[in-house]
Amino acid sequence: MFEKSAPTPLVPIHDELLEEKNIKLFLKREDLIDPDISGNKWRKLKYNLIKAKEQDKEIILTFGGAYSNHIAATAAAAKRFGFQAIGVIRGEELNENSNPTLQKAHENGMQLLFVSRADYMFRTSPHWLTMHQQEYSAFIIPEGGSNHLALQGVKEILSEIDTPFDYITCPVGTGGTLAGLASGLQAHQKALGFASLAGEDYLEKLVGQLLAPEFHERQAIVHDYDFGGYAKHTPKLIEFIQNFYDQHGIPLDPIYTGKMMYGLFDQIKKGKIEEGKTIVAVHTGGLQGIAGFNEQYGLNLKTI
C-alpha cells in the first residue's frame, strides 16, 4: 500500500525578489505524488490505512466540508486499497451532486452523510466518535487526516529533500502537516505554517496536541494571510495565483497553497525572513477543489 516510484520533484523558483534578497526557494511538488490521492493527503492517509488494514477494518469513516481535499483523497484511497468509505459532511443542505468534489467522492464509492453544522461540531467528541465507531465498526480518521499516524507519513517528506535548508513552509488547516514537518527538523531549522483560516489560539492548540514538546520551538504559524478566513479570498490573492502560474507554470489553489505562497513572498519582501536563507515550500496539493471554486465564483484558475 502507498508505494511510489520516486520522490516528488524539488523545483527551484526564480524571481527578482529572491535574487534581490539572496534567498533560495524550492517548491516541493507534493501535488504530483498521485493523480487522485494528492499532496499531503497521501502522506497523512498512508499509515492510517496501513493501521486500518492491520486491524482488519473494512470501513473508513472520516469528516470534512463540501470541498474537502481530505474527503476526495480518502474516497480515492479507500477505493484503490479495498475499503468502504463513509464521509460525514458539514452541511445538511448539501447532496452528492452539490459540487465536483462531492460528485467524485460519491463516484469513488464513498457513502456521504450530511449533517448540520451544529452536529458537525461534535466531530471530536469521544461520545460521538464512539457512537459512530460502534454503529459502523469503522476505523475513524479525524478531519483533515491529522493525527499521530499522519505525522509519520508527513515526516517522510524530509527524507526526500537532499538540499540543505533553513526553513520549510506549508499551509495550515488542521495542523498535521506542520506538526509532522517540525517533528523531523534539526535544531537549526524551522517550519513555518501559513494559516488558511482565522483563529490564532485554535491552530496553535491543534499543533500543540500533535507535536511533542521538544519540537514546539521548531515551528511557528503566520496568521496574516488567511484573506478573511477559511475559503475566503480577495482579488489580490487571485491575481497573485494567476501571476505565479504565468511566471512559473505551477498551479496553486486559493484555499491553501495560494495563501502560503502569497504570504511567503510578502514575508520575504518585508524582510521577515533573513537574507541568504534557503527555503523549501511544500505544495500540499488541493488542486481538485479548484473546479468547484471556479464554478462558484466564475473564475478560470488553472489546475495543471
From TrEMBL:
GO molecular function per UniProt: D-cysteine desulfhydrase activity
Active site: 68
Cofactor: pyridoxal 5'-phosphate
Modified residues (N6-(pyridoxal phosphate)lysine): 41
Residue ranges occupied by any Tryptophan synthase beta chain-like PALP domain in the UniProt entry: 6-285
Organism encoding this protein: Reichenbachiella agariperforans
Entry keyword annotation includes Flavoprotein: no
PANTHER family recorded: 1-AMINOCYCLOPROPANE-1-CARBOXYLATE DEAMINASE-RELATED
Entry-linked Pfam families: PALP (PF00291)
The keyword Lyase belongs to this UniProt entry's keyword annotation: no
Keywords: Pyridoxal phosphate
This protein's name: 1-aminocyclopropane-1-carboxylate deaminase
Entry's family note: Belongs to the ACC deaminase/D-cysteine desulfhydrase family.
